[in-house]
Design goal:
17% of the residues lie in helices and 34% in strands. By secondary structure, it is of the alpha+beta class.
């Protein structure tokens, strides 16, 4: 895994209406080849920042911002994902997002950046296993070969017609970030699409 994400469980889960855990697998399988869980209550900030203030922003969030688009950097459980030339998605430890938002909006560069707390608007789903790339390829049109989409890569794309941000943590481990309103749809798609591999959906981390 690129870095350790804090696992504090408080508040609302996007899968509250689902009875978890869920185990689906062919009878001939001893264990499922796919594991999935929601990363509960992960802080998420959408930040707009130009090149001139990129280094200053990195110091404020305690994580250097990626220079290349579709790359991620991480430090001490905090992730910075480059979505565009001046757009970043910051993933922060659960419970830290409000203070981080205040810090950025009261900083010396506050007039030169835009900060939006999207923690409740977005859901982070961790999916892993030896067949995870085959599974994602069923609903995602980007090239997911390990030589093209590797550790520390990210992409805005569609999964089963739902817009997501896909992040590669390790060769067989990904984070799928989607709108909270699409979370149960994405979960149902993963369950259906993974039938041939088997899937275990845990109660979240």
């Amino acid at each position: 895994m690129v870095d350790t994400i804090s696992r504090i469980v408080v508040g609302y889960s996007a899968f509250n209406d689902k009875k978890l855990p869920i185990l689906r697998k062919p009878e001939s399988f001893k264990a499922p080849l796919i594991e999935l869980s929601e990363i509960k209550h992960l802080g998420k900030l959408n930040v707009r920042c130009g090149k001139k203030n990129r280094d200053a922003l990195g110091k404020l969030i305690h994580c250097n911002l990626p220079i290349q688009i579709n790359q991620i950097n991480s430090k001490a459980g905090r992730f910075a994902i480059s979505l565009g030339p001046d757009e970043y998605l910051i993933l922060a430890e659960p419970g830290s997002e409000n203070q981080l938002e205040k810090t950025l909006n009261s900083s010396d560069i506050s007039k030169h950046i835009s900060v939006v707390n999207v923690s409740d608007a977005l859901c982070a789903i961790q999916v892993s296993g030896p067949k995870v790339r085959d599974l994602l390829s069923k609903g995602c049109a980007i090239d997911l070969h390990p030589d093209s989409f590797y550790k520390s890569k990210a992409a805005q794309c569609d999964l089963a017609l739902a817009n997501i941000v896909l992040v590669c943590l390790e060769e067989n481990e990904f984070i799928c970030i989607c709108r909270t309103s699409f979370a149960e749809y994405i979960l149902d798609w993963f369950i259906d699409a993974s039938y041939e591999y088997g899937i275990f959906v845990s109660d979240g981390i």
